[in-house]
Amino acid sequence: xxxxNPQSGAGRPLPKKEADLFKNVIKFYxxxxxxxxxKNADTILKRFPNHGETLCMKGLILNSMASSExxxxxxxCKEEEKEKVEEAKELVKKGLMFDMRSHVCWHVYGLxxxxxxxxxxx
Length: 122
Hints:
Layout: H1 16-30, H2 34-47, H3 52-71, H4 78-98, H5 103-115
Helix pairs in contact: 1-2, 1-3, 2-3, 3-4, 3-5, 4-5
């Protein structure tokens, strides 16, 4: 079986520039600077569209943006929120498929489900 994805958890890390951007994605997520994190994730994904950890982090950021954007303002935008949450879940699952051996992907998967109070799945 050939490995079409050079970044698929086979111990082949991202190049230094993208690895630094990925560290920034995590830093921006933790400091709730979601737009900056999303921008950095998109930059990595332009060059490595199948990088599982980045796809997962992008999904986690989109999920957090949806819940903070609509949840905190009390807006009646349930449909838009559901769309963003579904997109986030798809990205996390896609990232997990690309990198099943990554602890980061599995951690993000758990965080996503925990944020929706789906504790058995988390």
